[in-house]
Design goal:
It comes from Brevibacillus reuszeri. Keywords: Membrane, Transmembrane, Transmembrane helix. This is DUF8051 domain-containing protein. InterPro entries: DUF8051 (IPR058364). It is a single chain. It contains four helices and no strands. It is mainly alpha-helical. It has one domain. The longest helix has 28 residues.
Amino acid sequence: MQDIMIMASLLVFLNVTLLTILVPGGPIENRDFSNLKGGVFWGFNLFLISLGIISFITCYLLLISHPNAIFITQVIAVLYFIVYAVDLAGIFPKSPTKMSTALMLLEIINTTMAIFLFLFVTAIGHVSS
């Protein structure tokens, strides 16, 4: 069972890594978000930073097989899915700059990884209970 928890931890790490490379102004994310008001911009960034930090903590919780690690990972996977889905759907964040093809493909991959993470840890939860 410990090997499966290590794999789950690595999947969370992969998800958070895929999120962090999408930092605005970075190599992939080139859209202009200057139209977002300060509170919305910083609130969204605070949410993404918190998601990243909680993801790293969850990696550790999975490694030590913490009793709530599976549930926390499921919540994180859903949050990753929501972040990518609302962006791909053009709901939020809105930008006058069109999403690049590379960004769109990476977000589709990241959405798929979030779904896979959710299914993987849910299966672990059913096997271990």
